[in-house]
Amino acid sequence: MNLSNTITPYISKCPVAGELDMTAVMDDGENMAGGDMGDKELMWALKNGDLDEVKNLLVKAEDVNRTLEGGRKPLHYAADCGQTEMLEFLLSKGADVNAPDKHGITPLLSATYEGHATCVKILLEKGADKNRKGPDGLSALEAAESEAIKSLLQ
Q1: For the chain, N or C: smaller number of CB within 10 Å?
Q2: With the CA atoms of 70, 71, 74 and 75 taken in that order, what torsion angle do they form, in degrees rounded to the nearest 10?
Q3: What region, left, alpha or beta, does residue 69 occupy, with left being phi > 0 and alpha being psi -120 to 50 degrees?
Q4: Which residues fall in a coiled-coil region (predicted)?
């Protein structure tokens, strides 16, 4: 199935390391470490696979399931960008494998839409519901373009 013909409520942009100037995503260019968890700083670290920074920013257990700016949870960002180590860390800290974002997209759907077979495999092993449908009415299997992902979802 060609996803360009379906409506999805987000367009993922996973930055390439070094592509983003962190001062552009932090309030007034100031470092938000030291107790304040800036959503933009956390989202940047999740997308770029900066596990040490994510560990510093997720100080409380409930933070792994907190809805971030933009209506998504940390697991969605890791799944979107194919960050397998990040995905495993978040799941080990109790991230809800089936948590929907504000559009009803689960981490499994995010990984499927972006073609990240390893993330799909990890999420399924951790109990992701492969039958949940996204806002377009399609399950992960119905939305998958990759044969590798389709075989994991069958």
Answers
A1: C
A2: -120
A3: beta
A4: none
Q: What is the pTM of this model?
A: 0.78
Give the separation between CA 91 and CA 16, rounded to whole angstroms: 24
Of 64, 128, 53, the residue nearest 93 (C-alpha):
64
Which residues face 133 on adjacent strands? 139
The stretches of the chain forming alpha helices (DSSP H) are: 39-48, 51-57, 74-80, 84-92, 107-114, 117-125, 140-143, 147-153
- pLDDT tens, position by position, 10-33: 445 675 544 444 333 333 333 333
Superfamily of chain region 38-153: Ankyrin repeat-containing domain (1.25.40.20)
Tokens of 61: 């257990």
